[in-house]
Amino acid sequence: MDNSIALLKETVHEILNDREAYICLALPNWGESKDGDGEFLSRIKEITELPVKIVNDSVVGWAGSLGLSSGINLVAGTGSIAYGRNDAGEEARAGGWDERFSDEGSCYWLGMKSLELFSKESDGRAEKGALLEIFRNRFELKCDFDIIDIFNRRYRNDRTKIAGLQKYLLEAAQKGDLEAVKMYEIAADELAMIVGSVYRKLKFGEGTLVSYSGGLFHAGEFILGPLREQLKTEGVRLCAPKYTPVEGASLLAAEMFDGEKQYIEAIRRGFDIK
């Protein structure tokens, strides 16, 4: 934690240069460990004396994608999580527990699925498609079993690198590998379940807005198409994000101002002009 505190202190100083401001920090895993949260809060004054709001990083995704409006934001990047807030200010989340037993539908999850599919296509347990040759070429495999040693040496303990394998699955889908396309459909099913959980917890109704953020959505219609179809059964409407998570953090920081509405509207207008 010492390194994190030092880095945040340096960053806040560089950005603000002693100017007055309200700050929103969006931290992964925030709210998941009472001990960890408590230790960080006890040291917040080492970072800055300015007012600070701390939220889970899923919250800034919601604030940005929906501009602080009622609805749900789905994050699917290295991990996966959904966060929502209704008109009464009630909030809920689902997913995002731990990559070892959660994060379904994420880039990490699909990275592992790409390895699974490679093994199945190699064995003949799945129809051979583009993924087989993509892996053979990218990893310069002399034998398909070489992927085991490559995974153990380069990938096993690196969540981000495993998530990066999703790009090979996308390439295979773009080249017409039907099994790869199916993996995105399965991922969409998992992500829709995460959204559905938040929808039910907050007792949302027909027409609820659901937006999204995260690297998986660079896959475009391979993931958005089946996700859109799945969400129709929940009575929600998938919409493109209004603003980025960083801009969402600015909106959340503005909530701390007196007369917050005028500041929030001014920030929104600034985002809309760019």
UniProtKB/TrEMBL annotation:
InterPro entries: ATPase_BadF, ATPase_NBD, Euk-type_GlcNAc_Kinase. PANTHER family: N-ACETYL-D-GLUCOSAMINE KINASE. It holds the Pfam family BcrAD_BadFG. This is BadF/BadG/BcrA/BcrD ATPase family protein. Gene3D superfamilies: 3.30.420.40. Residues 58-253 form the ATPase BadF/BadG/BcrA/BcrD type domain.
